[in-house]
UniProtKB/TrEMBL annotation:
Residues 233-253 are annotated as: Disordered. InterPro entries: GDSL_Rv0518-like (IPR053140), SGNH_hydro (IPR013830), SGNH_hydro_sf (IPR036514). Residues 9-182 form the SGNH hydrolase-type esterase domain. PANTHER family: GDSL-LIKE LIPASE/ACYLHYDROLASE, PUTATIVE (AFU_ORTHOLOGUE AFUA_2G00820)-RELATED (PTHR43784), GDSL-LIKE LIPASE_ACYLHYDROLASE, PUTATIVE (AFU_ORTHOLOGUE AFUA_2G00820)-RELATED (PTHR43784:SF2). CDD domains: SGNH_hydrolase_like_1 (cd01832). It comes from the Bacteria. Residues 242-253 have a biased composition (Basic and acidic residues). This is Lysophospholipase L1.
Length: 253
């Protein structure tokens, strides 16, 4: 395992840590867990997390990438693009160009870049199959850039464990605490950190009755799907007005 002295995390809600909440209501998430583990092995380890929920790839590039590169961290993680992919008018050519720019920029100053093969939503979310061509293109781009820049890849797409509802928050879009714990362990394993547990171990089968599932679907549509659609129609984002939770590369703690 390489010894890292600093880490910067770039991205959207996945990296901010949405739905893994501390008692004070702030987000923790997989990136904080990775930083905590690396800090335990390296006194003075510094960490910044620039990710903000709801950000599109254009916003991630414009608002986070150059800032992260200027910090010159040993380790930088990049995850983004799925908010674009989920929108009907997604321009995949523009998305691809911006991701290329982001990784080229980050790789120019960081010793190690971590990329993610996104979680497969098609077995878990109704209607997500229509997104598969875009997701497949995004996966191919990650694989290509990993080779080009000698990046570390965390392959979440190939794992079936994330099909389990037990790893997702009530909104069905964001990972819950256990889901983030699994991603953190997968990331640490990809970085060569000795395993703490088997992150890919399946959860017990979901035995919810069909009638109960239908009622849960209705509650989800009212509480989460409806507001999400409304924000898309009005051009709003859950990240509007928010600032990064750890904007500076400071000692972890």
């Amino acid at each position: 395992m390489n010894a890292y002295t600093s880490m910067v995390a770039v991205g959207d809600s996945f990296t901010e840590g949405m739905s893994d909440f501390r008692p004070d209501g702030t987000c923790r998430g997989w990136a904080d867990l990775v930083a905590e583990r690396l800090a335990a092995d390296t006194p003075g380890f510094a960490y910044a997390n620039l990710a903000i929920r709801g950000k599109l790839i254009r916003q991630i590039v414009d608002e986070q990438v150059d800032t992260a590169a200027a910090m010159r961290p040993d380790l930088v993680t990049f995850a983004g693009g799925m908010n674009d992919v989920m929108r009907p008018a997604c321009d995949m050519d523009a998305l691809t160009a911006r991701v290329r720019y982001a990784i080229r920029t980050l790789a120019g100053t960081a010793r190690t870049v971590v990329l993610f093969r996104v979680i497969d939503p098609t077995r878990r979310m109704r209607g997500a199959t229509r997104l598969l061509p875009r997701i497949t293109r995004l996966l191919a781009l990650v694989d290509e850039l990993a080779v080009e820049h000698d990046a570390v890849v965390v392959d979440l797409f190939s794992s079936r464990v994330f099909d389990s509802p037990g790893l997702w928050a009530p909104d069905r879009i964001h990972l819950n605490t256990e889901g983030h714990r699994r991603v953190a362990e997968a990331t640490l394993r990809a970085l060569g950190v000795p395993p703490a547990f088997d992150w890919d171990t399946p959860l017990p089968a979901d035995t919810i009755r069909r009638r109960d599932r239908a009622a849960a679907d209705l509650r989800w549509a009212r509480a989460h799907a409806g507001p999400w659609i409304a924000r898309r129609l009005t051009g709003q984002s859950s990240g509007d007005g928010r600032v990064p939770k750890r904007p500076e590369l400071d000692p972890f703690g």
